[in-house]
């Protein structure tokens, strides 16, 4: 019956085609109009160099995790306008557009593009080109929007995830629960993928698990608890003693444990919710080996914890080990410590020492500051489930990567600006990370392509790109060249790591920068410098491009 | 060569299948574990009612535009687990999971679900269920995450767009330029679609244009300007006089106009950039009928405007009418007024009166407050291109819709909470919007299903859902019933509007609420009330569910 929004039958309402690849029309219109103008004025075979970079680290921090390269390369691999794309563009562009241009578009592909990139997962800094694109001007231009789209959010959310990881420390389990608060379906999928890269352990998003092999996690919602009112509702009451065929009335054991527990804890049994107990018991019957209960639907300490403990100890009696509890509201520092105290008391009263260490998951609107605050107050949380603040990157919901033309036909281009931070660094460039003898990165050094690379033990002058007096000699203990060619001759020409590999790269790369660059509060900026030769080159070009005014 | 992330060949790395529909595994794992537990404890045929609603309007505002329904219905229409989904879930769930459950999942579909909803595009308010789902408990539960994902961001960004529209006023043109700053590819596509609903006129996103028939707009980037250095580079210099076959050296005409203009404006010709002039001229040769130039690559007033004007007046000489300029940096209020003043001066000096009204587009990191500030300073901007702040909803990047169980097998459920705002309104409910005699909505009234609807001219008691003393009689001049059944018997059972229709609905619905609810600064909250019968029903249930403690 419904015709819904779309006006043309058979169109896919998706950014990807049937092979899951991103459609080349996922771009800004001006890329197409510029391509036409380049084509028309005789610049279609000009060879351009574009740099993709950002100007400011997100979240008041001093580092960024570079992510999204894998998707960029797949986009190049499948880049082709379809016949229906061309038909659509004919309707959009002016009727005066020459028909030969559409033949050109139908034929265009990134076969003559060369893509240099830093490795995905690497820690990166402002002004450093993450990706360099070389090739015919119109084709290189046509890649802009999609590459920015693929790098911007991926790097932003991976960086956010890495910050949560640092705040929580290496021991805590971090779970991404953000699907419902993401920018629609694919926002959620991207979030799951890149939070994993940034250091999360798993996601609630099942499709992300299926597509990317990310561990998926989850238990139950408040709705599950409120769906039950009494133990009488349970049609299934029996559980086998683990490893045997003996079937036991589980509910009776649960009841008897609740009685013992409320006595031991000095809680009135009438304050515990029977609906909640029924929900926990039925959930345990379904997942006897993985029982984790959401304990805050009613009162955490007077109902949730006694009910959970009754079910957990009943499971224990039949040979199963429960996992723990989840807190989704209230004062997480206080509650987690009270819950832990109760677990200890039960462990001691009933001689079940393992019970002390039941997992406590917290998941109520947690942001990076919440974790720092919990750390300073003290808490007993083992795992965090994080949604909204993680995936929306609330503190800064966009990374401002840009894509700037730096060379045409071997001639450097400079974009001048009143704001010196917005001046681009012209020409194709090489990039090195110089390390000190303690293994930490000291500085990133950008050079002209024709310069010899810096060498170990030999001092090299590193200059601030815009401030003449800021410069220092560095004698690197190690030199890492950061660019590789990932795409040439129409093919991906580097082995690409798995998602797991990118995740490891991110953690290693973070470990290689000093703690004071990484810390949350007032971090020290990491230095990005240019060689003396590049400094002089860009400043000469700057002068020769800047018009001379007259004071009047 | 590349194996990339995905571990299993042939998998689609997308949230949608080859028909563009959302995959049912785009959900949180706990929906599946809960479905198993419901199934196992004998609740699979329980009939549940869930409400989807939010608790707080976004952006410190007092209204929200409801969007995403069309996508929700399509999701229901195609909801089926595939064989590979089931295989994946077998690996994820505990090995003790009974195999019959997977047969049940393979067979499950929303055929017994009934979906009630408010019309897409309607202005809505906190606590009001936007969607009510009735049906078998596990199936109804399984819809939660995906419905939330589809409604949350859609409604958020449509509301944001509507706020920009109100700030800019009905006459200005509003263009969505956010693709590169969205949450990956589909975030961008969702943004384009729902900003259009919220009141935007077009997007730069070509794919959104192709898929949803949204007008697409765009001109050129700074890169286009920096790609040129001199007029000598242009291989094409000729343009036909409009409507004739006479081909003229366009560049010569441009040069002569630049000479006249710099003299008239008192600008040194050496301060204008020849590369910029070449870029504008070549762009005009490609789009003689749609020439709009980005004028801030060098100096707006000393280079961009004289260059643009030279090209525009050269076009005019050959019978073409230019469109205008875009400003992407600097003080937009000052620059737009200076540009307008210059246009007027040129119009008068060269007797081209139409030149005064050339379009001025502004597009530099604009948010809602920027527009309010420009309005109060005064400006001459005709159109805004808005990206980051629009699509990321920077001021509040997530809408907190929730999905709460309110009834099982005809028995109401109430979720209690220490925080009274989090208590749910139990049972299935009817919803009416009551209008005053001036045509504006007075109040939304939630009733129990069995109550008679309010009638025109007859006073009805409207009560605050939680505060006993807050109540008022209302005599509506018009009563609008807000729910329709959109899905029943496995089918969409309402004609769905076009995207254009939803957009109109949003504007009409906004016009029906009072200006003081809509305004940006300190808006008045709109009242959502319950009937006296519903009030008493929920408070009795509340009391009977709340355990009685003992003071000690």
Task: Outline the structure in words.
- Two copies of one chain form a homodimer.
- The first copy, chain A, is of the alpha/beta class and 552 residues long.
- Chain A has two domains: 29-161 and 397-545, nicotinate phosphoribosyltransferase, CATH 3.20.140.10; 219-381, Alpha-Beta Barrel (TIM Barrel).
- Chain A has 18 helices and 23 strands.
- In chain A, the strands form five sheets. Chain A has a seven-stranded antiparallel β-sheet with strand order 15-14-1-5-3-21-22. A six-stranded parallel β-sheet of chain A has the order 7-6-13-12-11-10.
- In chain A, helix 6 packs across helix 7, helix 10 (250-265) packs across helix 12 and helix 12 runs parallel beside helix 13.
- The longest helix of chain A has 25 residues, at 144-168.
- The first copy, chain A, is elongated, with a radius of gyration of 29 Å.
- Chains A and B meet through helix 1, helix 2, helix 3, helix 6 and helix 7 of A and helix 1, helix 2, helix 3, helix 6 and helix 7 of B.
